[in-house]
Every structure is written in structure tokens, then in C-alpha cells.
Design brief:
Its main location: secreted. InterPro entries: Aldolase_TIM (IPR013785), GH (IPR017853), Glyco_hydro_27 (IPR002241), Glyco_hydro_27/36_CS (IPR000111), Glyco_hydro_b (IPR013780), Melibiase_C (IPR041233). The longest helix is centred in the middle third of the chain and has 14 residues. 26% of the residues lie in helices and 18% in strands. The protein is built from twelve helices and 17 strands. The chain is α/β, with parallel strands linked by helices. Strand 4, helix 7 and strand 5 form a beta-alpha-beta unit. The structure holds 2-acetamido-2-deoxy-beta-D-glucopyranose (2 copies). One 2-acetamido-2-deoxy-beta-D-glucopyranose binds next to loops.
């Protein structure tokens, strides 16, 4: 969670791990798939961390929930209001062993907040850690999974983000016999919580936060609904570019109920231009990452709200017919290979989409040949601008090329259908 802690934990585990072990521990570990009652499409919501860090309380969480309603986020499909690290006191209850909400931050408990969030027609998420303590040093859930999952369920929790700090040395990984990282000690720490969540009456969406380590893209979908692909987001353009560059290597792990998580959004956090925020949003959309806003929603401009509530982009993200993301394609027969790629195409229930990003520092003309768009087929087509919500003038054929000026760091998004 806290970025500067990552290298420490990483080092601790990496120095002693090279591959997973299929040991007695792995044979006994739960094998529950994540719930199919939640998490089919990537989560849409908000989380306290990027906005407030540890400085959280009931008023801030409820203000965000109210903003979902007031700003049209709820109407656009945003559901999850998630509490990150630092919500509890430092010690468990000595008799029940439950984690205790901090009464100064949450005077009505987490249950009290959950009731109010649910009353607005929204869902609520909580945070814990697959170690002895969270990244900020509050009680972790390793070894206490059954108690904590039952507690979260009894409070009405709908979503769990599960972090990876403070892992005891005996949980590090040793040489594998079968090479499947699902059987690594690291995966087993997450499987233990997955098993505990599976026995609860509520479906709880399960977000694995182990920063892209332990080959999580090869086993994440067997354990949780999403898995982080790297370290914490920061409100900088270089972060947006690096998250895209990383994720495009692992697109085959994305489908219904399982999503690569490019981390929480930085829109509104002052490090990005509006064009960069548009591309931050669009890339998380077309790569089907969870989108958890991470700012004081009441301070967003109307233009920022328009970005995050774009109905057509959200429809691609939340499509219940096509699970996969858009993937890079070669825009013209002689187009250069760039890193990250600039041209992406994918299907939705509405048709075929093309997304183009430009990471250069000036406006450039971007061109693609319709014959290069995967599985578009032949015939006549109309091209619809998803950002503007209007059709581009003219009719196109499979022998057409299409050109558009793309401002620096901005993007364009199209729906292509038969004319
Ligand atoms: C590490 O030690 C704890 C406490 O003895 C034990 O419960 C746990 O199973 C051990 N983990 C592994 C992977 O052996
Ligand atoms: C990341 C990326 O490929 N950016 C491109 C933006 O457009 C300019 C001009 O076509 C390219 O040079 C960049 O490579």
C-alpha cells in the first residue's frame, strides 16, 4: 500500500524465493474460486487512499457516497465506496479477537457506515492484509482469516482489498515441484482468505494487492476478482504510461470475474492535465482495470466529472457480453512497433472499437486502415466518436484509412459498426 514499504517486503521475500512449493501447506489450502455473484465486470467505485491516506473518518466516506449520488456517478454505474488502510485501532479485541474500528474515526463502527452507504443504494469495501499487520501497522488477517471474513460479512461488507505487507519469514517461497505459483506460500496466504470469504453469506468482491509479484496473472483468477499489477499509483503522467506498458504484456489473463488491476485513479489529484486524465481513464477502461476514484470528489471540475461519467466508455468497461479488453493492433501495414502501443482494438456488444493514444509531447495525426482492425470484416462502416457521442461524418469501407489529430497525451475512442 505505502509505496516506500514495497521494496522492503519485496526484498525480504525475493531473497529467499525463486519458485513455489507444493507442500503440505498447499495441499491443505482452500481452493475456492471467487464468488460468481459479484465481480463479473471490473469494479467501479472510489477508495479513500489516494485522496486521504490514513487521515480518514466516517464523514469523508459518507461525503464520497453522497457525491456518487449528487455528481451522477451512481447513475453512471459507480457502486463501491471503499475504506483503505488505517480504519482500526492497533490491537484486536482481547476476548473476541476481532479487529476493532477506531472509535474516533468511525464512531458508529464500520457497520454504521455500511448501513448509510447501503441506504444510498451503494456498496462498501474494507481493507486488510495477508500478513501480521497492514502496511500502516494495524492488525493484519494472516492466520485470522475466518474471524475477519465473518466480521466483515456481519458488518455488511461487499468488497475486500487485501494487501501484502508484514509477511512472516516462514511464509516465503522455496523451490517448487510443479511450478504453479497457485501453490506458492504467497498465493496460499491469499487462498486462505478466499476460503474464508467463500463461507460467508454475503458475496464479497476480492481484490488481491500483491503488486504484480509471484506471477499473480497466472493464478489470480483462481483466487480473486482482480489483482494489482504493480506498485502504488502516483499522480504523474509517467505512472499512467508505465501502468499501460506493464499491463499490455498480460492481457490474456483478463476476462469476466478476473481483471488486471492498474491501481486506483489519480484524476483530480493535481499531477495530470485534463488530456492526461482522459487517457488515464480511457486506458483503464479499454484494458478493463477496476476503476476506483481516489480524490475528494466534491472538488472535481465539471470537465473532470464529464470524463469519469462518459457513458459510452463505461459501457465498454461494463459490457456483460464480451469479457476481454482491447488489445494492441498494427494500425497500418508499415506501422512501427512502439512501447507502449498506441492503437488498440476490441469488441463489445455494440460492435468493434478502436482506441488511440499518443504519448508524444505534441499534437500528431494518427491513422489506421480499417482493413487492419481485427475481425472487422468487409463492407461499409460508420465510425462513432465515443468521447463526443456523435458519428464522424462520412461512410467508410474496408479499404478506407481513417486519420485524426490527437493532442499531446490525449486519446480518441471509436465505435465502428456496419453502415
Ligand atoms: C508459519 O508459522 C505459523 C506459526 O507457527 C504457522 O501457523 C504457519 O502455518 C507457518 N507457515 C508456513 C507456510 O509454514
Ligand atoms: C507512445 C507512442 O507511441 N507515442 C507516439 C505518439 O505519436 C508520435 C508521432 O507519431 C510518435 O512518434 C510517438 O511514438
Amino acid at each position: 500500500m505505502v509505496y516506500h514499504l514495497v521494496p522492503l517486503v519485496f526484498l525480504l521475500i525475493r531473497t529467499v524465493s525463486s519458485a513455489p512449493a507444493a507442500s503440505g501447506t498447499s495441499l491443505a489450502a482452500p481452493t475456492n474460486l471467487p464468488s460468481r455473484e459479484t465481480g463479473k465486470t471490473p469494479a467501479l467505485g472510489w477508495n479513500t487512499w489516494n485522496a486521504y491516506g490514513c487521515n480518514i473518518n466516517e464523514a469523508k466516506v459518507l461525503a464520497a457516497a453522497q457525491s456518487f449520488v449528487d455528481l451522477g456517478l451512481k447513475a453512471a454505474g459507480y457502486q463501491y465506496v471503499n475504506i483503505d488502510d488505517c480504519w482500526s485501532v492497533r490491537s484486536r479485541d482481547t476476548s473476541t479477537q476481532r479487529i476493532v474500528p477506531d472509535p474516533s474515526k468511525f464512531p458508529n463502527g464500520i457497520n454504521g457506515v455500511a448501513n448509510k452507504v447501503h441506504a444510498l443504494g451503494l456498496k462498501i469495501g474494507i481493507y486488510s492484509d495477508a500478513g501480521t499487520a497492514t502496511c500502516a501497522g494495524y492488525p493484519g488477517s494472516l492466520g485470522m482469516e475466518s474471524i475477519d471474513a465473518a466480521t466483515f460479512s456481519s458488518w455488511g461488507i461487499d468488497y475486500l482489498k487485501y494487501d501484502n505487507c508484514n509477511v512472516p519469514g516462514n511464509w516465503s517461497d522455496t523451490t517448487a515441484s510443479d511450478g504453479d505459483w497457485y501453490n506458492s506460500n504467497s498465493a496460499i496466504r491469499y487462498r486462505q482468505m478466499g476460503g474464508a470469504l467463500a463461507t460467508q453469506s454475503r458475496p464479497i468482491q476480492y481484490s488481491l494487492c500483491l503488486w504484480g509479484n509471484y506471477k499473480v496473472t497466472t493464478w489470480g483468477a483462481r483466487v480473486g476478482h482482480s489483482w494489482r499489477m504493480g506498485g502504488d499509483a502516483v499522480p504523474q503522467w509517467s505512472y499512467v504510461v508505465s501502468a499501460i506498458t506493464n499491463n499490455v504484456q498480460y492481457l490474456s489473463s483478463i476476462d469476466f470475474y478476473g481483471h488486471n488491476d492498474m491501481d486506483m485513479m489519480e484524476i483530480g489529484n493535481k499531477g495530470l492535465t485534463l488530456a492526461e486524465e482522459r487517457t488515464h481513464f480511457a486506458a483503464w477502461i479499454f484494458l478493463k482495470s477496476p476503476i476506483l476514484l481516489g480524490t475528494d470528489l466534491s472538488a472535481l471540475s465539471a470537465a473532470q466529472v464529464a470524463v469519469i461519467t462518459n457513458r459510452e466508455l463505461l459501457a465498454f468497461h461494463q459490457d456483460t457480453t464480451v469479457g476481454g479488453p482491447a488489445a494492441p493492433f498494427k494500425a497500418t501495414t508499415n506501422a512501427p512497433v512502439t512501447s507502449p502501443p498506441e492503437y488498440y482494438s476490441g469488441k463489445s456488444s455494440k460492435g468493434t472499437h478502436v482506441f488511440i493514444i499518443n504519448l508524444s509531447s505534441s499534437t500528431v495525426t494518427k491513422t489506421f486502415a480499417l482493413s487492419q482492425v481485427p475481425n472487422l470484416g468487409s463492407g461499409n462502416f460508420k465510425i462513432h466518436d465515443m468521447w463526443a457521442g456523435v458519428d464522424v461524418s462520412g461512410t467508410f469501407s474496408s479499404s478506407s484509412t481513417f486519420s485524426v489529430q490527437v493532442p499531446s497525451h490525449d486519446n480518441v475512442a471509436y465505435l465502428i459498426t456496419s453502415a
